[in-house]
Predict the 3D structure of the following.
Amino acid sequence: MEESELKYCWMLHEIAKDLGVAKNLPAILNLIVKSAVDSLNIKASSIRLLDPEGKRLELMAAYGLSEEYLRKGPVELDKSPIDKEAMTGKTVEVEDVTRERILQYHDEAVSEGIRSIICVPLVVRDRIIGSLRAYTSAPHRFNEAEKTFLSALANLGAIAIENAKLTESLRKRIDGLSKLVEVGKSISSSLKVEEVFRRIVRAASEMFNAKGSSLSMLDKGMFKPVSHHGISKSSAFKLAAPSPEELEELLKGSTIAISDVEDSSLKYKAELIGEGVKALLCSPITSKGRVVGALKVYFSEKRRFDDGEDELLSILANLSEISIDNAKLYRLALSNWENLLKEVWEKLDVWGSAK
């Protein structure tokens, strides 16, 4: 083994140790890009991860690049041949960017003083999740030892990124379940139906750190809005009830996740956009196997929902149904008791004798 290869092996060993103690995803990403620059003595490095649709690479970390260059926007695969090829699993190299126009932001790269680029895919269990880029300030052809090092670093990074995401997902799930316990106590502590409705929508908004939420209940064959939080009353009247597209899924008992409202075909898309809603979750409220309501949560940013979030809203919807039923039973029992008392008093005269 050559001296350079031994050096890179030792560096990877040290990097792996550091990755093992990194506390969160941003720390892991920053460690990877800094390690690439320091180990290869190059100009800069960056990491981009694929968006949920697999059409764009979003910048997650960079080292050695100016703020102006980083603000240029996301990389669209259809406009960037180098990245599109890298997303097939290949390591792609550009020896001199001034001579080859295969970058989406070619002019910006030249202005940044970038001359050579190598793009290495980040792969986890045969699934490509993004890319690691290395940049030099002078034309440079990366040798095999450098390519091997970057590939190994990318593999280490991809595993660390995936583990960090799983850890974060697990933490969010635990936090969500803990919040559900408190939410359940809050909702069930009231026996007034209208107050239960208000507590449900407020809890949904707070639990998901969302813009707002709404609740509709089935009444004489129609879904009618009963409470909302964080959105205007006029919009809530339209948005709370399930649209035809949503209703079809709700009747199957499914939670609906819309990651990008603007890219959806929802009936009330214009109203959602007008309210600043860019994503939403919608879960059915069921009773004895029948859909009796819908709980919606609205978000002000586009987002990718995971199964844990779908599950949390579904559990909250089930808790809500129990609390609503309890409140309705209490109201019925109270009404029956009041009617009974009224009947008794009607049969008694003022001296307590029966009529």
User: Anything to note?
Assistant: Residues 144-188 form the longest helix (45 residues). Residues 190-345 form a domain with the Beta-Lactamase fold (CATH 3.30.450.40). The chain has two domains: 3-167, 190-345. The mean pLDDT is 79.
